[in-house]
């Protein structure tokens, strides 16, 4: 299972987190890469934004650093409980928070959080 699949599985299985999110026809609104504009908020969007070599030996890549960005999109800017749940889930996977920023875009508030992990090349 690759990094983005592991992230999705952990976020989707967290009942406390999914209870805070809007739902579409199939499940809680957790999307990879892009969310459809369904008009329901809050939603999560996650994606791998960086995957770079970190350690090489004998011409082989041994370890890499992967950064996953999670966007929390809300209508009212209230993202603290969602952020707390996401941070716990990501830390459980071995990620560490690298940075976060907030912005308002169109009629949404967006909180972006970057999480980084070192992983072997086979993962």
Automatic annotation (TrEMBL):
Protein name (Swiss-Prot/TrEMBL): DUF3168 domain-containing protein
Lineage of producing organism: Bacteria, Bacillati, Bacillota, Negativicutes, Selenomonadales
